[in-house]
Amino acid sequence: MNLLENYIFGRIFRMFVAALIPVLAIIWVTQVLGRINLVTDSGQSIGSFVALATYMLPTLIPVVMPFAVIIGVTQTLQTMNNDSELAVIDASGAPRRTVYKPALILAGILCIVSFGVDNFLEPVSRYGMRKTIAATYADLLSSVIEEKAFRKIDDGLYVQISERMQGRVFKGLFVADSRDPRFEMVYYAREGAVDESGGTLIMKDGEIHRKIEGRSVSVIHFDSYSFDLSELSASRGQATLRAGDRDLGFLFNPDPNDPYYKEKPNDFRAELHRRLTDWFFPVTFALISLMVAGSAHSHRERRLHPLISALFLAFVFRWSAFYLANRVEGGMNSPAPLYAFMVVINLLLLAGIYRSVTRLDRDSLFPRVADSCAQLYGRLVPGRAKSGGAA
User: Fold this and answer.
1) Nearest one of 262, 287, 260, 273 to 352, comparing CA atoms
2) What per-residue confidence (pLDDT) applies to 389?
3) Number of domains in the chain
4) Per-residue pLDDT at 287
5) Alpha helix locations (H) across the chain?
């Protein structure tokens, strides 16, 4: 990059960091506070709380980063336009790619970061977070719950024990689970214990009362039954890893004998295609910013701040991609519409940028391919002027 491109890149990067850190911190704190009662009620140390908070952070970075990109690029370009810097750049004869190149380079770097976090760091952190929560619930059951008193473990999940013995063993166990609106589960057991790993509550000599809405209650007697604390799910008897906890290699070639895969194979398909598309969001969001605020304009031309328009388009795009991914997860659609949506949106953004620059810049900005994109854009948006406006 030349001197001017380095200057623009530095401004965009500083604005990106200034937007990323506060937004990430706010979302991170709200997520951590949702778990703080679990940690404090179970008597965990500050180290366990810090570990749980650290495991949550990689799951938030890929979500927040694209929005920080759109804020950084749009706000930087709008500030440069207000200071007449964009007009001076155009007047000096510099090609428009001088403004676009730094934003796209930063977005490309962040795409690589997002891909690495999504596919390598996040699965490890999710697994660590699951183990920490499992140990926390185990301590909550084995040492904190008072005898002969109901204790709320989670929304719709209550536990009572009659007597606590040594070694995480207790007598007279009662568990009421109504978290799933489709049915209610009630567990009775003469004896219960938390295993050494802290991931499973083992109940012995008891009954399961299951009531499905509109049907009679079914009663199942058992000699031994395991209740998964890491998943907090009454419908499974052993710990499982969800699709989001798996690495990219497993998603490409899942184990057909995996219990969670056999139960919900569409979750693994949806997670795979989500990871193969979400990593490109920083580039898409940067293109939105460049289309909205990438050219010099007077204050009379726009009554609405470009950042508002850019964020609105970003939220619509993000919601649409999320909707298409959910349809794959529900088994109602193939992944083809998700990929087609990503390709079409990015081509339209390129075409919108191409049509907003002067004819002189068009020859050097996006050759041939962009010209085809511009024709597609003109057909889908007929109200747009056919000739590019002066920059």
Assistant:
1) 287
2) 42
3) 1
4) 94
5) 3-41, 46-82, 85-91, 97-116, 122-139, 248-252, 259-263, 265-278, 281-293, 306-329, 336-355, 359-365, 369-380
- Domain contains 82: no
Encoded tokens for 381: 């948006």
From residue 314, give the alpha-carbon distance in Å to each of 9, 277, 375.
21, 15, 23
Return the pLDDT at 54: 85
pLDDT of residue 152: 73
Name the β-bridge partners of 219. 209
- Residues of the chain under the 50 pLDDT cut: 232-239, 359-360, 366, 384-391
CA distance 379 to 383: 9
Q: What amino acid is encoded at 193 in this protein? A: A
Phi, psi at 184, each rounded to 5°: -120, 140
| Helix/strand/coil for 167 | coil
Region of 264 please: left (phi>0), alpha (psi -120 to 50) or beta: beta
Among 27, 12, 199, 33, CA closest to 106: 12
Answer whether residue 220 is part of any domain: yes
Question: Does residue 215 lie within any of the structural domains?
Answer: yes
Angstrom distance (rounded) from CA 195 to CA 168:
8
Q: Which domain holds residue 178?
A: 146-238
| Burial category of 121 from C-beta neighbours within 10 Å (exposed 0-12, middle 13-18, buried 19 and up) | middle
Distances (CA, A) of 21 to 50, 57, 278: 18, 12, 20
CB-based contact 134:229 (threshold 8 Å): yes
Instruction: Pull the structure tokens for residue 167.
Output: 């070694």
Alpha-carbon distance of 111 to 240, in angstroms, equals: 30
Beta-carbon contacts of residue 208 (< 8 Å; ≥ 6 apart): 185, 186, 187, 219, 220, 222, 225
User: Residue 119 and residue 139: Cα distance in Å, rounded?
Assistant: 31
Q: What's the confidence (pLDDT) of residue 104?
A: 93
The token pair that represents 30 in the structure block: 């709200």
Is residue 165 a part of any domain in this protein?
yes
pLDDT of residue 51: 78
